[in-house]
């Protein structure tokens, strides 16, 4: 071996040694998965993949939003051009005739409810507000004794309530600004049965969701304040398989419907959910009204399942129910006699 080749071999061996050292250093600097990182689960892996897809489709979503806005803008423009008066919504609203009847939801039972029931009360109030805004004869809607848990829940979950229209929301009790002689408390425990609505009066609905625990509370409050009281005439028109208790929004909607039709039976069967199993007490018109009720329920008039949690606005008092059962048994006995 020549003397010229020896330095070349030495130099090559030095280069290889340096490469081996650098590879060892890089390998030592890499974190060991077993020591520093836990293995990624399938769920975490799916989340990472979804996040990556979300980021990749950001521009596509942006483009779709732009196209949707343009399409809606064109639709609105075409609709405005097709309407003879330029605004169909205003034309419809001009047909509305406001009622002078005052309908109050009494929220003074706030301390008797847990948060779960407060949320249900809030949802029922939202339904009442929406129905009143859509009604042909909207009432003068009052929300009284507004505060406590209910107000806090509305502030947190429905901040838009401060912009609600055609509603009077007051922290005061209704007795402070409405005359006693104008007030009628709607409670199932009352022996008085409503025959018709007096639009000069103010009707009070108890804002209490208690799963039937606080029996007689609304009747007691009306008596303590010296206020007139009455119950809806449901027993005269309807017989139900389920418990005879109505949600706050059901009472509210029945009154709105009665103001439009002036017919209690039609009001009850328009509003009552199909799950209540309501049938007319007058058997001669049972089939026609049942068909009408089914059609309306299929049209979306049935309320949400969460609204099945009801207030103390019961449909019928116990003694009225017993009286109705006796009448039915007597009638069946008479028909069965030869």
From TrEMBL:
PROSITE patterns for the chain: SAM_MT_TRM10 (PS51675)
Biological process, per Gene Ontology: tRNA N1-guanine methylation
Keywords: Methyltransferase, S-adenosyl-L-methionine, Transferase
Biased composition (Basic residues): 61-73
InterPro entries, alphabetized: MT_TRM10-typ (IPR028564), MT_TRM10-typ_sf (IPR038459), TRM10/TRM10A (IPR016653), tRNA_m1G_MeTrfase_euk (IPR007356)
Domain SAM-dependent MTase TRM10-type, residue spans: 88-279
Gene3D superfamilies listed in its UniProt record: 3.40.1280.30
Entry GO MF terms: tRNA (guanosine(9)-N1)-methyltransferase activity; tRNA binding
EC identifiers of the protein: 2.1.1.221
Record carries keyword Chloroplast: no
Catalyses which reaction(s): guanosine(9) in tRNA + S-adenosyl-L-methionine = N(1)-methylguanosine(9) in tRNA + S-adenosyl-L-homocysteine + H(+)
Any one Gene Ontology cellular component term annotated for this protein: nucleolus
Role, per record: S-adenosyl-L-methionine-dependent guanine N(1)-methyltransferase that catalyzes the formation of N(1)-methylguanine at position 9 (m1G9) in tRNAs. Probably not able to catalyze formation of N(1)-methyladenine at position 9 (m1A9) in tRNAs.
Self-association state and partner proteins as the record states: Interacts with tRNA.
Protein name: tRNA methyltransferase 10 homolog A
Organism classification: Eukaryota, Metazoa, Chordata, Craniata, Vertebrata
Gene transcribed to yield this protein: TRMT10A
């Amino acid at each position: 071996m020549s003397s010229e080749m020896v330095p070349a071999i030495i130099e090559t061996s030095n280069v290889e040694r340096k490469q081996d050292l650098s590879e060892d250093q890089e390998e030592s600097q890499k974190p060991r998965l077993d020591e520093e990182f836990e293995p990624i689960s399938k769920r975490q892996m799916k989340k990472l993949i979804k996040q990556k897809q979300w980021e990749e489709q950001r521009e596509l979503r942006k483009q779709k939003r732009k196209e949707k806005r343009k399409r809606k803008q064109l639709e609105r423009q075409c609709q405005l051009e097709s309407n003879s008066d330029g605004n169909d919504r205003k034309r419809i609203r001009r047909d509305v005739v406001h009622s002078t009847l005052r309908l109050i939801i009494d929220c003074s039972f706030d301390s008797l409810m847990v948060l779960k029931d407060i949320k249900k009360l809030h949802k029922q109030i939202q339904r009442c507000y929406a129905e009143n805004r859509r009604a042909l004869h909207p009432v003068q809607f009052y929300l009284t004794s507004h505060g406590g848990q209910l107000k806090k829940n509305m502030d947190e979950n429905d901040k838009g309530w401060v912009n609600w229209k055609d509603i009077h929301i007051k922290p005061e009790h209704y007795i402070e600004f409405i005359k006693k002689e104008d007030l009628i408390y709607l409670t199932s425990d009352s022996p008085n049965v409503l025959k018709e609505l007096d639009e000069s009066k103010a009707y009070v609905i108890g804002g209490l969701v208690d799963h039937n625990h606080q029996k007689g509370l609304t009747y007691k409050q009306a008596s303590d304040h010296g206020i007139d009281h009455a119950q809806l005439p449901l027993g005269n028109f309807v017989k139900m398989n389920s418990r005879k208790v109505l949600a706050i929004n059901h009472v509210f909607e029945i009154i709105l419907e009665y103001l439009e039709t002036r017919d209690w039976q039609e009001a009850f069967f328009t509003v009552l959910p199909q799950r209540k199993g309501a049938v007319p007490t007058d058997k001669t018109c049972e089939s026609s009204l049942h068909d009408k009720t089914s059609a309306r329920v299929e049209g979306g008039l049935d309320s949400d399942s969460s609204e099945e949690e009801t207030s103390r606005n019961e449909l019928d008092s116990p003694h009225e129910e017993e009286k109705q059962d006796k009448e039915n048994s007597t009638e069946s006995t008479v028909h069965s006699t030869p």
